[in-house]
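=== RUN LOG ===
request id: a7f3
mode: sequence -> structure
chains: 1
length: 66
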Amino acid sequence: MKNRIAQLRKKQRYSQAQLAEAAHVTRQTINAIENGKYDPSLGLSFRLAQILGVTVDKLFLYEGED
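=== RESULT ===
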């Protein structure tokens, strides 16, 4: 599963550090999520969606087998 967090973050003109502070996580956590090295919890996903002004389903792209 890929995410659109970096794209949405840049559109809102947030730095990774600013998004991390708003979401109460570290910048390294945001970096790991954006690079697909860490899947956020459901709670964090909802926080990020709220901060970025989208719904949770808009944060993620499913790339599974059909």
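=== NOTES ===
Strands lie at 2-3, 60-61.
The chain has a mean pLDDT of 94.
=== END ===
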